[in-house]
Amino acid sequence: MSKSSLHLSDSAVSIYHPNAAISDKISDKVSNTPAYHHKANHNQNRDIEQSAQMSDGQLPITTKANANSAPKVGFVSLGCPKALVDSERIITELSREGYEVAKDYDGADLVVVNTCGFIESAVQESLDSIGEAISKNGRVIVTGCLGKEAEKIRSMHPAVLAVTGAHAYGEVIQAVSHHLPMPQKIKEARAYDPKLDLINNAGIKLTPKHYAYLKISEGCNHRCTFCIIPSLRGDLVSNPIDKVMNEALALKKAGVKELLVISQDTSAYGVDLKYKTSFWNGMPLKSKFYDLCQALNNLGIWVRLHYVYPYPHVDKVVELMSEHKLLPYLDIPFQHASPRVLKAMKRPAHSENTLERIQKWREICPEIVIRSTFVVGFPGETEEDFEYLLDWLKQARLDRVGCFTYSEVEGAVANELPNPVPEDIKQQRYDRFMALQQQISAEKLQEKVGKTLKVLVDEIDTEENIAICRSYADAPEIDGHVYVDNIDERVQVGEFITVTIDEASEYDLFASFV
Length: 514
Hints:
5-stranded mixed barrel, 6-stranded parallel beta sheet
């Protein structure tokens, strides 16, 4: 996955998804049509300049080291939104200590590289990024999922100053303090800086100011045969609900209009805590998936759920969506439909009748949007299994879908499974799958033509006088857009507007400003 994948084009880019075993690359084109919005990678890579730009206005940004200024740290953040949240927390803690964020390698006294280690292409990108940081700066601390492979990192890059694992915030702060100590003079000068005190509420964010990721837990209790997340990030560890709600409220007060709830298994939230009751704003709340959703509803902002598994208790959450509280949007990584393949994958809820469950959700909340990811070419997948998946897709008619060809992940149990699928067959199945889903997506979006939608403005193209927006059906960076023309000065980034849908393509909508 390249950093350039943040600026999508019609050419193929390397991507990955944190909850799927996938190929190194997928094509942006199906039937010669640009189709980048079907991606499900949640790729949140931030290079050193982007990290500085995103945090601009939240803490001091500098471009050149100065002996009389605070030490300056550069950041390269690779991987999924969960890793991005880790980077945000590290930057926040360092900023509280008085450190500044550098805009480029030359202006940094030290660089932190937050790595990904999920699949081989991500491992290679992380190693390349470490090498680039060393060559351009020389002083590098490595953290993140690949940090578990400290020996591999040090063998390739012996110059690294320190290596820590995933979500090891304290160790990173300690390493930075050791290798780049804060001068006593600067520390005393920054001790009572009211600007830095403001950071304590919502923290530094590497997303646009109007949306933010809310990570509710770490790790995973499942042992899917294609996945190594538990070995990288451990078993499920949920944040107590009062802590989660305090963060959510702080983000709202900081101007966030949309919260994207993330974890490895959002629907399992609180299992490890035995649904312990905590008090928040004087009210008793259980650390439980439904109770959290109900509490987040009351904040009065968009709340979008990611990485939910199709368990029966999700039905009650869909009822909340029907009451126009939670966004009627579910991100569910189904991965496949064939019972035989799902069993080989050891997927949670693999025995559930998902078509029946989807139908029930649509009865409860007709406007619900479901997005998912699938893997084709898993070891042992037969043509019959694949045809079963295509038939399932025709019946499910999901709104947003990403598909990936299976590739081995070092340390995954699936590597030892018999009957691997040849690469050319994997690619053929991928093409057939995406051609079908593209047709389904086009038909579903066509149904929106003529309707009025509330959308959130992400960007404004001043040259074309177009607003690039998202509706409730669109998660940032992975789903489609709503392109709005005929805008005027009332249309501002980070604000909601009402639009009328005029046209639809396979993945995007085109609208007029009402």
